[in-house]
Design brief:
452 residues; alpha/beta; Aminopeptidase; Alpha-Beta Plaits; 2 domains; five-stranded mixed beta sheet; four-stranded antiparallel beta sheet; 15 helices; 12 strands; 42% helix; globular
Length: 452
């Protein structure tokens, strides 16, 4: 079967893909609450002849498997949304549900493309009578960066040989490496309550300890390795201003190029919290929530992915779609859009070509994902597809709006073709398979342990 036959098979599944994009977008669910998403994809793939495997330790996660023998190909799907990004498919900020969740990271598109690609690959292998195993991985809790880490810990990826991944973005690009390692942790401070006006001397403020920790972290930022990012949010626990707070908590993310950097910086943040507790005569408790690794470099896998991207027909847009994209761009800072246009040498609102092979080195992706951990246990690729206009970033209402339109749906169909085609190459081209595996073995960390 030719590559064009694969593309044709995905085109025949276009309605299925678009329907999945819309159904998940219309039913956004937060990390750890993906009842609709996991059930929707489980039933969709069961009807296509896939065998379902679940693990009681990871709710809303599942494997849908078809075929037998090796190689075993894992296509990664996600379906969780973000809090506070409820949004209509509109070029202005309009909530569907006040304060509700929304797909501002495009996971409705990500999961739909992965499922469509897996089904297309299954149909092609079935028609050709080829041996191999196709697995769709239903992966919850990506937005909290822990779902796949849990799945690895509970051996759900055992037996897999290669993993295939993509993400909605503003460009079409193959990545050699991406994603920063990350750790998520909380501090719980305990003090003594008192009346802040009548007897402040009797209180020991947990809130003061929390704020002093944050001050210490601000000074720490100057003295960490390049590429490190430290984010936090706080919770005053609902006390009034005239109460010396007996309880407070803060939630931190530390990102860095490598997990070793993350661990070192996390220990220094912990010292800030311990010092703050000493200064305020309070106590502090540390809780590690999760951590995820950086993406392991695999140039050979990226080369193969890139060949498939350039072989496909680029996404085409109607005049109405381009106008919608322009209106979305108008809501983004002018310089942000101009900077992306310059970086990719693109005049229109949508990126309509394939980024140069080395473009990722000039515009690297600085996010984190638990997919990085998958790259630590098997070769994994990554590419992005333009689901929203240049200048738009994920985790914005603009991204959520586009994910509910034909802009995002066209990206998902295009991504499904790339997933199926690249997986087909890995299955049918043993020389490419061995090259990718050899590079993985040369770079892998034998001491990798999921941070859970």
């Amino acid at each position: 079967m030719s590559k064009q036959d694969i593309f044709k098979t995905v085109d025949e599944l276009k309605d299925l893909c678009v329907d999945a994009c819309r159904k998940i977008w219309e039913n956004p669910e937060l990390s750890g609450e993906e009842n609709f998403g996991s059930e929707y994809y489980s039933e969709l793939l069961r009807k296509e002849g896939f065998r379902l495997v679940v693990n009681e330790h990871v709710p809303h996660a599942f494997i849908a498997e078809w075929g037998s023998g090796h190689p075993v190909l894992a296509i990664l799907g996600e379906y969780d949304a973000l809090p506070g990004f409820s949004q209509k498919a509109s070029c202005v900020r309009e909530e569907v549900t006040e304060g509700g969740a929304g797909h501002a990271c495009g996971h409705n598109l990500l999961g739909a493309a992965a499922a469509t690609g897996a089904i297309a690959l299954k149909r092609v292998l079935e028609a050709d009578g080829l041996e191999g195993t196709v697995r769709f991985y239903g992966c919850p809790e990506e937005e909290t960066l822990c779902g796949k880490v849990k799945m690895i810990h509970y051996n759900m990826f055992d037996g897999c040989d290669f993993a295939f991944s993509w993400h909605p973005m503003s460009v079409n690009m193959a990545f050699d490496t991406s994603y920063l390692a990350n750790a998520s942790f909380k501090f719980y401070y305990t003090g003594l309550s008192s009346h802040a006006g009548f007897a402040p001397q009797n209180g020991r403020s947990a809130l003061d300890a929390m704020e002093l920790t944050n001050v210490g972290v601000q000074y720490l930022r100057e003295h960490v390795i390049d590429g490190t990012r430290i984010h936090y949010t706080t919770d005053s626990c609902g006390y009034a201003p005239n109460i010396v707070h007996p309880d407070a908590k803060s939630w931190y993310y530390v990102r860095a190029p490598h997990m070793s950097d993350v661990k070192e910086t996390m220990e220094r943040v912990k010292k800030c919290a311990q010092g703050a507790a000493i200064m305020t005569e309070t106590q502090v408790r540390f809780e590690l929530l999760s951590g995820c690794s950086e993406m392991l470099i695999n140039n050979a896998f990226a080369d193969l992915t890139y060949k498939n991207l350039v072989e496909m027909e680029p996404i085409s847009y109607t005049a109405e779609e381009r106008e919608f994209a322009r209106k979305i761009q108008d809501t983004v800072a002018m310089e942000t859009c101009a900077r992306e246009r310059r970086a990719y040498n693109c005049d229109g609102p949508m990126f309509e070509t394939i980024a140069l092979r080395d473009q990722w080195t000039r515009t690297p992706m600085k996010a984190s994902t638990d997919s990085g951990d998958v790259s630590m246990i098997m070769p994994m690729n990554l590419f992005t597809a333009a689901a929203w206009p240049l200048g738009v970033a994920p985790h914005t209402w603009q991204a959520a709006a586009c994910a509910g339109t034909s802009l995002g749906e066209k990206a998902a169909v295009w991504a499904a073709k790339a997933l199926a085609a690249t997986a087909y190459d890995v299955l049918t081209m043993p020389e490419e398979r061995e090259k990718i595996k050899a590079e993985f073995e040369s770079r892998r960390d034998d001491k990798y342990i999921p941070m859970i």
